[in-house]
Specification:
This protein folds into three domains: 3-86, Orthogonal Bundle (Arc Repressor Mutant, subunit A); 89-156 and 266-295, 3-Layer(aba) Sandwich (D-Maltodextrin-Binding Protein, domain 2), CATH 3.40.190.10; 163-263, D-Maltodextrin-Binding Protein, domain 2, CATH 3.40.190.290. 41% of the residues lie in helices and 26% in strands. The protein is of the alpha/beta class. Strand 3 (92-98), helix 5 and strand 4 (121-127) form a beta-alpha-beta unit. The radius of gyration is 24 Å and the shape is elongated. Helix 1 (3-16) crosses helix 2 (19-26) and helix 2 packs across helix 3 (30-44). The chain has helices spanning 3-16, 19-26, 30-44, 60-87, 100-117, 169-175, 223-231, 241-250, 279-291; strands spanning 49-51, 56-58, 92-98, 121-127, 141-145, 154-161, 163-167, 189-192, 200-205, 208-213, 216-220, 236-240, 254-256, 265-271, 294-295. The strands form four sheets. Strands 4-3-5-14-6-15 form a six-stranded mixed beta sheet, covered by helices on one side. Strands 11-8-12-7-13 form a five-stranded mixed beta sheet.
Length: 296
């Protein structure tokens, strides 16, 4: 039995509260995780986990052992990173999380350039629009847009993007261009629910904050779908400026109510503060800062 592998499996199960979830995090089979934890319990002569068909929880002994196992694995990881730094070349597996559209447009090319520069690193890019728990899901660094809750993670701002209102020029020619947020009442509204949940859109002019209730004619949880519908003349939609920058440049979309835009949303790199910054993560952060201009 490899004690480090068994401890890593136990910690993953404790964090994920399940064997299947831990297996996905470790990229091994569920049966392997079950075997490793059982071997550890046999070696220690004590049950670490209570198992039912629906849940996994720590025993009292498991809770005590978890704290020490984390410390042992942390010491091992620090020792490995020290050796990695001496080699002077990033190695290992790098897991990056990013919003769906921003990740596809901007983070995927950055990660490709990173891997060409550091071929000894294998990478995984997770694209979704939710804020994943970095530690529980084994994420090394996340790209996040917007105001973040206080999580204790390290946050480094690397850009900003504006929330803009856009429509196709042909649509505006036929329906008129809104000059105040209240004018939206007379327009067809395309709602991207991930950006503006609910039916209230918020605007700002100087110190004045405005709210307008909208009645969407088309609602979607996908930014691409909302923008595509706007491109066909389907109405007015909210988007982040990086999502529509090329369409605006080409004249396929036009911004409206620019004087009422709220403050830009920050674009940030986030990584867990509980870990020392490994060479592979530091190299990714440095590459993003030195080569990308994520200000929109």
């Amino acid at each position: 039995m490899d004690r480090f592998d068994s401890m890593a499996a136990f910690v993953a199960v404790a964090d994920a509260r399940g064997f299947a979830q831990a297996a996905r995090r470790l990229d091994i089979s569920t049966s392997s995780v079950t075997r490793l934890v059982s071997q550890l319990e046999t070696h220690l002569g004590v049950r670490l986990l209570n198992r039912t068909t629906r849940a996994v929880s720590l025993t009292d002994a498991g809770a005590r052992f978890l704290e020490r196992a984390r410390r042992i694995l942390g010491d091992l990881e620090e020792a490995e990173r020290s050796a990695e730094d001496e080699r002077g070349e990033p190695v290992g597996r790098l897991v990056v999380s990013a919003p769906l559209m921003f990740g596809r447009l901007h983070v995927a090319p950055l990660l490709s350039a990173y891997m060409q520069r550091y071929p000894r690193v294998s990478a995984e890019l997770l694209l979704n629009d939710r804020f994943a728990n970095l530690t529980e899901e084994g994420i090394d660094v996340a790209v996040r847009i917007g105001t973040l809750p206080d999580s204790g993670d390290v946050v480094r701002k690397v850009g900003a993007t504006r929330r803009v209102l856009v429509a196709a020029p042909g649509y505006l020619d036929m329906n008129g261009e809104p000059t105040t947020p209240d004018d939206l009442e007379r327009h067809r509204i395309i709602a991207f629910s991930a950006l503006a949940p609910g039916r209230t859109w918020r605007f700002q002019r100087g110190d004045q904050h405005l709210e307008v209730d909208v009645k969407p004619s088309f609602t979607t949880n996908n930014g691409d779908a909302a923008i595509t519908h706007a491109l066909t003349g389907g109405g007015v939609t909210l988007a982040l400026s990086y999502q529509v920058a090329d369409h605006i440049k080409e004249g396929a979309l036009k911004t409206v109510l620019g004087a009422f835009e709220p403050a830009p949303y920050p674009i940030q790199l986030v990584y867990p503060s509980s870990r020392l910054l490994s060479l592979k993560v530091r190299a990714f952060v440095d590459l993003a800062v030195n080569t990308k201009r994520w200000w929109y």
